[in-house]
């Protein structure tokens, strides 16, 4: 059973960069165990800022961050506790990778936790396998392709065995095959119990992959079932998001009487195929 207490939660969170305007005001955002959450919103809307607040890289100017219901303290002990539960993979892998080889980079977090050498080695082996980059273990990170660097950066977070893996636009810059491979990897991590939060501009991907959406617009953050939020035209407009193709197709099918008014629409191409097979 999933715990009713969120693993991490921002309560009434506000934030502004130095001398800048407010980026986030009175934001509430709860991440519960087992979910796949897509964070969407316009450029400059505050997605990265929100993810950094959630993972402790930035500190709320107002409001608070809770971990398992208790307020996070930003001292060494509090941040270590947070980071063993919540890991952020930043958008640009070059901001995250710095060690000479992939394996060294991936081992950095677990080593910093002071884990025994055997445990570090095991975690690195498993993280490299989960990201399908075992063959790259000894490669210098600067010689990797962009997609490989992305996977190496994610492996570094996975090696920390977080309960919540947060990723900032993980599919940006990946080719379609790379995107599919990443989604398969995320399926594997989720099956093993990891909660995943992903910022993305890709509404089709969000509808297909997530079960919950969090949409940032000038009116604030709205959270809810992904299919409901991404069919809300006013919200899509406010957040400058396009309507997912599957939502348009669902409407068309309803208008043609091929789908009952109250039936859920397709979310993926496979859903659509199955639906069309059924209606003959
Ligand atoms: N380090 C910083 N110093 C000052 N302002 C910043 C900094 N980082 C972001 N901002 C500003 O904060 C606002 C929110 O930026 P943020 O990166 O959180 O948005 P985003 O939704 O992730 O955008 P994008 O979709 O373009 O990645 C923007 O106006 C941005 O210019």
From TrEMBL:
Signal peptide: none annotated. InterPro entries: AAA+_ATPase, ABC_transporter-like_ATP-bd, ABC_transporter-like_CS, ABC_transpr_CbiO/EcfA_su, Co_trans_ATP-bd, ECF_ABC_transporter_ATP-bd, P-loop_NTPase. SMART domains: AAA. GO terms for molecular function: ATP binding. It is a peripheral membrane protein. Gene3D superfamilies: P-loop containing nucleotide triphosphate hydrolases. Its main location: membrane. Belongs to the ABC transporter superfamily. This is ABC transporter ATP-binding protein.
């Amino acid at each position: 059973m999933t715990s009713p207490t969120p693993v991490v939660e921002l309560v009434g969170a506000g934030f502004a960069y130095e001398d800048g305007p407010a980026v986030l005001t009175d934001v509430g955002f709860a991440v519960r165990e087992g979910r796949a959450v897509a964070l969407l919103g316009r450029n400059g809307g505050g997605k990265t800022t929100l993810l950094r607040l959630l993972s402790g890289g930035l500190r709320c100017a107002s409001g608070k961050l809770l971990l398992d219901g208790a307020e996070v303290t930003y001292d060494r002990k509090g941040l270590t506790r947070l980071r063993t539960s919540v890991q952020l993979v930043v958008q640009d892998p070059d901001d995250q990778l710095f060690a000479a080889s992939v394996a060294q980079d991936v081992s950095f977090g677990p080593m910093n936790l002071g884990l025994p050498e055997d445990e570090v080695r095991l975690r690195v082996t498993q993280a490299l396998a989960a990201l399908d980059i075992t063959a790259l273990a000894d490669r210098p990170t600067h010689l990797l392709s962009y997609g490989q660097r992305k996977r190496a950066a994610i492996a570094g977070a996975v090696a920390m065995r977080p309960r919540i893996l947060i990723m900032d636009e993980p599919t940006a810059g990946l080719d379609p095959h790379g995107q599919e491979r990443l989604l398969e990897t995320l399926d594997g991590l989720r099956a093993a119990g990891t909660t995943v939060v992903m910022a993305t501009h890709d509404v089709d991907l969000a509808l297909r992959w997530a079960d919950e959406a969090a949409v940032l617009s000038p009116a604030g953050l709205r959270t809810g079932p992904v299919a409901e939020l991404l069919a809300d035209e006013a919200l899509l407009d406010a957040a400058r998001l396009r309507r997912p193709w599957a939502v348009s197709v669902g409407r068309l099918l309803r208008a043609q009487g091929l789908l009952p008014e109250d039936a859920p629409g397709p979310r993926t191409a496979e859903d659509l195929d199955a639906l069309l097979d059924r209606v003959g």
